[in-house]
Amino acid sequence: MNPVIALVGRPNVGKSTLFNRLTRSRDAIVADFPGLTRDRHYGNGRLGNKPFTVIDTGGISGDELGIDAAMAEQSLLAIDEADIVLFMVDARAGVMPADEAIANHLRVNRKKTWLVVNKSDGQQEEIAIADFWALGLGDPHAIAAEHGRNVTALIEHVLEPFPEESEETHPDLIASGVRIGIVGRPNVGKSTLVNRLLGEERVVVFDEAGTTRDAIEIPFERRGRPYVLIDTAGIRRRKNVSLTAEKFSIIKTLDAIRECNVAVVVLDARSGLVEQDLHLLDYVLTSGRALVLAVNKWDGLEQEAKEKMRADIKRRLGFADYADLHFISALHGTAVGDLYPSIERAFASATAHWSTNRLTTLLQDAVSEHQPPMVHGRRIKLRMAHQGGSNPPLIVVHGNQTDALPDAYKRFLTNTFRKVLKVRGTPIRFEFRSGK
Length: 436
Ligand code: GDP
Ligand code: GDP
Hints:
The chain contains 14 helices and 20 strands. The protein is of the alpha/beta class. The strands form four sheets. Strands 8, 9, 10, 11, 12, 13, 14 and 15 form an eight-stranded mixed β-sheet that branches. Belongs to the TRAFAC class TrmE-Era-EngA-EngB-Septin-like GTPase superfamily. EngA (Der) GTPase family.
């Protein structure tokens, strides 16, 4: 479970500058769900052995009348999701009324809050922070997000109470079973599906073994096979929540994706594909998770709507075409059982082991079928392949001048390996190493 850091503050204090410095923005995911807090960005960062998640809450309106409302709308949910709040202020602007209003909120919120004075470049630290003691949030910490001044030291300090990442992400894989994450935007039918999956006749649900932050892990057994379902929909907490907006959490979703072996991404045939579905799928892919696609609410759908959904998927989800696609009705239970064989197959592919001998033979066959190109008068050589990891499978290829290998050739190799090894439902990664 990564610690979650929320960046909070007025517009223009430097939140997105700090966000970009802390995260590999390639991973960033934008929360743009209708009816939810807008403009929140989520990204992953790492300091040494400590991974963390950062939320940029977007600007809080400087409009004094609206600030309570804006605060509630923009940031309260993010603050709720966070373990740590970095409250950012601007050394050049001094204390503004909006800063005071935000400080009042944070004081009653009791979340661990750090007061961060940004844009301290060109000033003595003591002078930069002097005004901000008045906010009553303890020691102000001077940084300059743009130049990196004190940023690493601050984050080290902030993360001190949190443990280092453990080596084994999935201990005892076999005993505890395939870990299935059920993810999707609000209202696509996740809780209905979770209930359906657990409600099947031959399913035995065990006592809740562990509840993580909010994503709940539900161990169960089906036909003698153990599974763990990672529920992001919060079915067990229904009584505590009233609004869809409250029950949905991007952090839970990101945690579930990181901690599952196979992600079942639920899409809604009635509302069609939307941008957020693509963001989620992209995150599943960059995380290297195995994937099964479930297009829900297929019941009673007009023929025309069905065709449109199929066409949309074909056109826009080409990047996920290695995944099995199911058209289901969680409400009626139609085709829900078919998800299991796909989940098993994706898991088997994601965790398969191939000998160096097998992979090297396969590589050599591929190379003799289709030679890599010449570079600077010398042919690129690919000699040997071995497996460097699983879930997702990583194939390490050794040769010469591999840096110059064209993308088209890498695609050829990926497709060949995928086909010959019958890899289905998981991304497959390649790493190329040159001897000289
Ligand atoms: P946000 O609205 O809080 O996300 O603020 P931005 O990150 O967009 O930054 C607002 C402006 O402040 C931009 O022009 C940044 O280049 C500038 N800025 C951010 N950090 C620093 C800093 O450490 N020093 C200085 N001088 N400018 C900064
Ligand atoms: P979640 O927010 O993703 O957990 O979605 P819910 O499971 O709460 O479902 C949202 C709404 O969609 C509810 O009104 C469900 O009854 C409805 N729903 C879920 N699955 C189906 C389905 O397969 N067909 C139809 N027609 N409605 C469904």
